[in-house]
């Protein structure tokens, strides 16, 4: 049996690490990342603004209707990822699933690191909440009683959001920043962008800690799968806690 250090990716079995694929081993640059953010913000503003205007007088009206909320989320990520990938294609970069982090990794190592990251994130959030009492995330505030609403919340918050967010924020944003800035500055900046994208300043610190932890998982495991799994588990706990409180 091959032995390797849990926290040292250099010791990971070669069979689990595709040749030439490492965190930050991407063709795009820091400049490309900031251009992507600007283009995505503009595309989201235009397309989602039209969606809201056509279907409801305010975005809050959309979010309070479960099926419209699902359509809004899917459209948001189609526009976001489509814009980012379209830009990278226009720059003539060569990429595939493995480039974004869809790479195999050691499952036991990944699971242990996910648990460690979530524990530290919850600990940091608990300390933060001794001084600030943040509101729940907007998506959790829109959960309503009923099995149908719970199923939609699971689909949106536990499945779609982690898959899309990890691909964008860690697979594209963080890896590009890590390539140009190194791990610590890149992780801090990508986690800040991730936290700001939630548009709730009172939860900036907890979401920043979570984003930094997920960037660390990608950096250490060379894969998006642990961060996706951790993101799903974190959101699942939030959905269950919110839904239980409604009853």
Structure, described:
Mean pLDDT is 86; it is low at 1-20. The protein has helices spanning 30-55, 59-63, 66-90, 97-100, 107-128, 138-141, 147-181, 183-196, 204-221, 225-246. Helix 8 crosses helix 9 (204-221). By secondary structure, it is mostly helical. It has one domain. The longest helix has 35 residues, at 147-181.
Task: Summarize, please.
This protein is mainly α. It has helices at 30-55, 59-63, 66-90, 97-100, 107-128, 138-141, 147-181, 183-196, 204-221, 225-246.
Number of helices: 10
The computed structural class is mainly alpha
Question: What shape does the CA trace take?
Answer: globular
Largest sheet: none
Q: Work out the radius of gyration.
A: 18 Å
The share of residues in helices is: over 70%
End-to-end separation in angstroms reads 50 Å
Order of helices and strands: HHHHHHHHHH
Q: Regions with pLDDT < 50 over 5+ consecutive residues?
A: 1-20
In percent, how much strand structure appears in the residues? under 5%
* Mean pLDDT rating: 86
Number of domains: 1
**Tally of extended strands?**
0
